[in-house]
TrEMBL record:
Protein name: Putative phosphoenolpyruvate synthase regulatory protein
Annotated function: Bifunctional serine/threonine kinase and phosphorylase involved in the regulation of the phosphoenolpyruvate synthase (PEPS) by catalyzing its phosphorylation/dephosphorylation.
Family, as annotated: Belongs to the pyruvate, phosphate/water dikinase regulatory protein family. PSRP subfamily.
Reactions accelerated catalytically: [pyruvate, water dikinase] + ADP = [pyruvate, water dikinase]-phosphate + AMP + H(+); [pyruvate, water dikinase]-phosphate + phosphate + H(+) = [pyruvate, water dikinase] + diphosphate
Length: 273
């Protein structure tokens, strides 16, 4: 299957178009060239994008794929009437049937967020991000009672990106704490985590993959050696079993999958909005 250029065109950030579009494109075995065009909120801007799409089609000899999230009819018409690409209008696909189902017209508000800076949800996410940054990699044990979840696991098992994803996408206050050889020698989790064990969730990883990741950071070190990685992973998993901490392997899971599993097990209320 030939690769194509894919345009994500939005009157907002384009995140919705790109996220939804990528989930669809992932069903097909090709690596496409992605072009995001955000804040297309005028006829003039839409005309420029239409010209870019036409030039791409002529240069590549194949129609680009175009995912649209545009609410202004005049702006949308310019791109939908373009003969040079396959246009997938996501708002119309869903908004019009919902208007018919609800019996009301949508507000056709431009952009993904409305009055975002004033929303409680937005402020919660900012607070959660600040919390996760302050409690990254065991930097601080203060206010752990405020944490929604505390991720534990060996160094480089995926704790930091998962914590930040939970904060940014779900407003979850996620601390993360590395399990180190000193903890394994004591045969117990750090004392600062013991009162909050019910909030803990563990991440493990395949030792071979861990060694590969660590060698990129500190090549040819004991820290990155396969033997040490095997020992640390084995000790961490034994500790989590002993302490009754739920855990999963991050080796073959995306950040999104890991975060959803954590929410399901620790904060299932966050899966209901």
């Amino acid at each position: 299957m030939p690769n194509r250029t894919v345009f994500f065109v939005s009157d907002g950030t384009g995140i919705t178009a790109e996220t939804f579009g990528n989930s669809i494109l992932a069903q097909f075995p090709a690596k496409h060239r992605h072009v995001r065009r955000p804040f297309i909120d005028s006829v003039e801007k839409a005309t420029h994008v239409a010209a870019e799409i036409e030039a791409t089609a002529q240069r590549e000899g194949k129609r680009p794929i175009i995912f649209l999230t545009l609410v202004n009819e005049d702006v949308r018409r310019i791109l939908k009437e373009s003969p040079h690409g396959l246009v997938l209008d996501m708002f119309n696909t869903f908004v019009e049937p919902l208007e018919a189902e609800f019996g009301v017209k949508s507000n056709h508000r431009v952009g993904r967020f409305s009055d975002v800076a004033k929303s409680e949800e937005y402020n919660e996410r900012i607070e959660a991000i600040n919390f996760s940054l302050a409690h990254d990699d065991g930097q601080s044990a203060r206010n752990l009672e405020s944490a929604d979840v505390i991720l534990v696991g060996v160094s480089r098992s995926g704790k930091t990106p998962t914590s930040l994803y939970l904060a940014m996408q779900h407003g979850i206050k996620a601390a993360n704490y590395p399990l180190i050889p000193d903890d394994f020698e004591r045969h117990q989790i750090p004392s600062s985590l013991a009162p909050h064990k019910r909030k803990c969730f563990g991440l493990s990883i395949d030792p071979e993959r861990l060694a590969q990741i660590r060698n990129e950071r500190r090549p040819d070190s004991k820290y990155a050696s396969l033997e040490n990685c095997r020992w640390e992973v084995r000790q961490a998993e034994q500790m989590m079993r002993r302490e009754g901490i739920s855990w999963l392997s991050s080796t073959h899971k995306s950040i999104e999958e890991i975060a959803t599993t954590i929410l399901r097990d620790i904060r299932p209320d966050r899966l209901i909005y």
